[in-house]
Amino acid sequence: MATLLKGKEVTESLNARLAKQAEDLKAKGVTPTLAILRVGERPDDLSYEKGAIKRCQLIGVEVKVVALDENISEKDFFDKLQELNKDITIHGILMFRPLPKHIDSEKARQMLSAAKDIDGCTDLSLAGVFTNTKLGFAPCTAEAAMEILHYYDIPVSGKKVAVIGRSLVIGRPVAMLLMHENATVTICHTRTVDVPSITRDADIVIVASGQMESVGKEFLREGQVVIDVGISWNNDKNKLCGDVKFDEVVDVVEAITPVPGGVGGVTTSILVKHVIEAAVRTIGEDV
Fold first, then answer.
1. Can you tell me the distance from the alpha carbon of 56 to that of 34, in angstroms, rounded to the nearest whole number?
2. Residues sharing a CB contact under 8 Å with residue 278, sequence separation 6 or more, in sequence order
3. Same domain membership, residue 261 and residue 148
4. Could you read off the pLDDT tens digit of each residue along the chain, which spans 287 residues?
5. What is the CATH number of the domain that holds 164?
6. What is the value of pTM for the model shown?
7. Domain span at residue 60?
8. Is residue 179 domain-shared with residue 256, that is, in the same domain?
């Protein structure tokens, strides 16, 4: 049976390190602070907000929830966003999307200060990922996948990595992060011919297709490491499932992230990590 790359162990180690950094910042007179900008009360937003607040409190990061009425005017929304951009006591901004239809989401995405874009959604943040410069922050899920590889001492340099999925949330940015660590990366997508032949040739396979249980044993072989980023509710099985057919491949590959219990929990800690990194940058220090 494959080794399970559990997110809990990664998160506990990461949280301990972050708590120390938060404590050091406070000793220097800086309290790392996250602003959560939410319009309306969508259940999934509220659920994520609750988890983010809990993680911030555990680590020692302050949280300010800016909850706006779903009927707020576009002008008032942008005024509030600019206010948060300019507030020097706020180091990171988590802006829940999608926004109501009457608010220009693309304009909001680009208006968000890249220095406070702790979820890596602005073009400037993504440019930083591609150029390996600190213009903003990498998307949290992409960095979470890397954090798991690092924690479990899975070598990346010189390895062949297949990434299934080319979204700007995970596929393309994680490919860039891997390349910065000298991996040889192939991105597979809906127009890729014979994906299984590509994934079987890889040392590491990162699955982020967004298609529940779409990757079975025909895609994989012995000795591989699999990072399953997907998470969906399977009505037939009455449980959460990933993009990989876990039960089918767990006895084939060398190591795999479970779903749930893998990448998801690490992602929230990465969000808090970015808030602390943003705070460190404000005092001119390196992370």
1. 8
2. 32, 91, 92, 115, 116, 118, 137
3. yes
4. 999 999 999 999 999 999 999 999 999 999 999 999 999 999 989 999 999 999 999 999 999 999 999 999 999 999 999 999 999 999 999 999 999 999 999 999 999 999 999 999 999 999 999 999 999 999 999 999 999 999 999 999 999 999 999 999 999 999 999 999 999 999 999 999 999 999 999 999 999 999 999 999 999 999 999 999 999 999 988 999 999 999 999 999 999 999 999 999 999 999 999 999 999 999 886 65
5. 3.40.50.720
6. 0.94
7. 28-116
8. yes
